[in-house]
Amino acid sequence: MTREISKSFYSFDEVKAHLKSGVPTLYHSSQTSTVIPFEKIQGLLNPSTVLGNLSTIKGHMELTPEKNISVSGFVTWKEAKEFCRAHGREIMTSPTEELAGVLSGIATSCTGERSFGFKNLRSQIVELTYLDHEGCEHKLSADKKLNLPFDLSSYQKDFSPYKNFKNAPYPRLEFETDLMTGTEGQLGVITSAVLKTIPYEEETYLFILLPRWEDNYEPHLEIYNAVQNFRDEIRAVEFIDSNSLSYLPSEKNPGKNQDAIFLEIRKKDFEKVYEELLSKLTHSDEETIFEMNPSKCRDLRMSVPRAIFEVNTRMGVTKKGTDVQVSSERFKDLMDFYRSYTKLGVAYNLFGHFGDAHLHFNFMPTPDKNDFCNEQLERLYHQVLSWHGSPFAEHGIGLLKKKFIAPFFSETEKQVFRQLKKQFDPKGQFFPEGFMSC
Ligand SMILES: Cc1cc2nc3c(=O)[nH]c(=O)nc-3n(C[C@H](O)[C@H](O)[C@H](O)COP(=O)(O)OP(=O)(O)OC[C@H]3O[C@@H](n4cnc5c(N)ncnc54)[C@H](O)[C@@H]3O)c2cc1C
User: Fold this and answer.
1) CATH code for the domain of 426
2) To 10 degrees, the CA torsion angle through 276, 277, 280, 286?
3) If 0-12 CB within 10 Å is exposed, 13-18 middle and 19+ buried, where does residue 175 land?
4) Fewer beta carbons under 10 A from the terminal one: N or C of the chain?
5) Does residue 38 form part of some domain?
6) Do 278 and 351 fall within a single domain?
7) 324-336 pLDDT, tens per residue?
C-alpha cells in the first residue's frame, strides 16, 4: 500500500481521528503562505510528513452577544469581513490576501494594512480553541496569563525589545492565546476563534503621488513622520513604488512612473486629515493628492503582490522578498539599505505597510541570480539583527525563512521551543519541519 502524501478533512472529528494516529502532518488551509512553497514542497518536508487540508472543513460564523465574531472551521478573511459588514460591524485585521483563512491567520499571526490603526491580530483575539496531540479540544483565553511548567522569564526578557513590533522574531508567549498565535501550527490545530469587531463606519482612501524613492525619498519620510500623530484617524498607511505599479495595466496605474502612498481613513475624518496633515506637507503638492473609492483601491492593492507572484512563477523562482519591520529611529537606515539593493543589477520593487516602518523589498531575479539574491538577503538580516528589528513581521517563517531566522534565536529561545514541543507535541506530529526545530 502506498503512503498518503496529502489528506483532506471534512470535519474536526476526522482531524481528531488522524491526530490519534500520530502521523506527522503539516495542516494547512488556503496555501497562500509565501514562506511555505506548497507548489513544490516535495523534498522540503520529511518523507513521512503528510499535507493535511483543513480548508475542506465547512466554516461557521456568528456574532456573540458582545458583538465579537466567532469563527469555526474554514472561513476566509473576505467572508468574515462581508459577514461583519452585513451586521454593521468591522473586523480590524485586513491582510492583503483575503482568500487566506482566519484560523490560519492566527497560526501565522497575520497582520496587514490596518495594523497601523488597530495594532496586530494578537490584540484582537478574545479566545480560541485547539485540538491537542490526542485530539482533545481546549479553550485558551486572551485575558489569562500563560501558565507553563517551565520558566519563561529569560524568554520574555529577550522578547521585550520587540514588544511594539507587529510580530517579533518569535511568538510572545505571555497570554494563553499566544500558544497558538504565530506558532505556525507546530503545537496544535486551531478549530475556532473569537475576534473583536468595531462598528462599521464608511471609509475612503487618499492617494499621494510621489517621486521615485530611489531618486528622492524626502517626501516619503516627511509623510512617515507626519502620520505618526494621526493613529486615531488613519487606519492604514500603505506604500506602492513605481516598479510595483508598473506591473498593473496602465488604466489601473494611478501614477506616471511615480510612487504612491495611500491612507485609509473614516469618511468623517477626511477634513481633519486633509487640513491638519496633508495640507501641511512641504514636499507634496495638493495636485498630487486625490481620493479613491475603497473597492478600486483594494483591487489595486491586491493586484500588485499577485502580479509579482505570477512573474516569479513564470520565471520558475521562489519569492526573494523581505518582510522587515524596524523602529522609527531605524526607518531611514532601512530605506538606505534598500536603496543599496537597487544598484545590484537585479530587477526589484518595494511596497508595504509604510506607516509601520514595515516594507517588502522584492528581488525579481532570473534563475541564475537566485543564490546571489539569497546572499544579499542574508546581509540585510544581519543588519536587522543588529538594529533589533523584526525580520518577518507578517508572513511568518515557514520553511523558506528558517535559514534566516536561526541567528535571531539564542539558546533561551531554542530551549523554550524544545520544551514546548515536548509538552504539546510529544509524538512530533505537528509540522515537525517548522521553525521550532531550528
Ligand atoms: C498576495 C499575497 C498577499 C499577502 N498578504 C499578507 C498580508 O497582508 N498579511 C499577512 O499576514 N500575510 C499575507 N500573506 C501571506 C498569507 O496570506 C498569510 O500567511 C496567511 O495567514 C496564510 O493563510 P492560509 O489560509 O493560506 O494558510 P496556509 O498557507 O494554508 O498555512 C499557513 C500556516 O498556517 C498553519 N495553519 C493553517 N491552518 C491552521 C490551523 N487551523 N491550525 C493551526 N495551524 C494552521 C499551517 O500549518 C502553516 O504553517 C499574503 C500572501 C499572498 C500570496
Assistant:
1) 3.30.465.10
2) -110
3) middle
4) N
5) no
6) yes
7) 999 999 999 999 9
Same domain (yes/no): 195, 207: no
Place of cell 502524501: 5
Q: In sequence order, which residues have a C-beta less than 8 Å from that of residue 166 and are 6 or more positions away?
A: 111, 115, 119, 120, 325, 353, 356, 358, 390, 393, 394
pLDDT at 252 over 80: yes
pTM, to two decimals: 0.94
Residues 245 and 115 in one domain: no
- Tell me if 347 sits within 8 A of 363, measured CB to CB: yes
What distance in Å separates the CA atoms of residue 434 and residue 438, rounded to the nearest whole number?
8
Query: What is the grid cell recorded at 238?
Result: 500603505
Whether residue 218 sits in one domain with residue 244: yes
Q: Is residue 6 part of a domain?
A: no
pLDDT band at residue 1, thresholds of 50, 70 and 90? very low
**Do 238 and 137 have their domain in common?**
no
396 occurs within a structural domain: no
Of 348, 372, 387, which marks where a domain is finished?
387
Residue 281: what pLDDT?
Answer: 96
pLDDT at 2: 52
**Cβ neighbour number for residue 159 with a 10 Å cutoff:** 20
Instruction: Return the C-alpha cell found at 223.
Output: 509623510
C-alpha cell recorded at residue 135: 485530539
- Identify whether residues 235 and 361 lie together within a single domain: yes
Q: Spell out which residues line ligand 1, taking CB within 6 angstroms.
A: 26-34, 36, 54, 95-97, 100-101, 103-105, 107-108, 110-112, 184-185, 189-190, 305-306, 309, 394-396, 431
Same domain, 227 and 370: yes
325 forms bridges with which residues in the sheet? 358, 390
Residue 325: CATH number of its domain: 3.40.462
Residue 194 lies in a domain: yes
Q: Whose C-alpha lies nearest to ligand 1, atom 5?
A: 96
pLDDT in tens, 51-87: 999 999 999 999 999 999 999 999 999 999 999 999 9
Average pLDDT over the chain reads: 95
DSSP β-ladder status, 348-353 and 358-363: antiparallel
Pocket test residue of 14, 18, 28, 30 for ligand 1, highest count of atoms within 8 A of CB: 28
Which ligand 1 atom is the nearest neighbour of the CA of 394?
11
Classify residue 68 as exposed, middle or buried by CB count within 10 Å of its CB (0-12, 13-18, 19+): buried
Q: Same domain, yes or no, for 117 and 91?
A: yes
As a whole number, mean pLDDT of residues 118-128 equals 96
DSSP structural state of residue 256 = S
Distances (CA, A) of 62 to 59, 68, 116, 118, 138: 10, 8, 27, 22, 20
Range of the domain at 151: 53-199+414-437
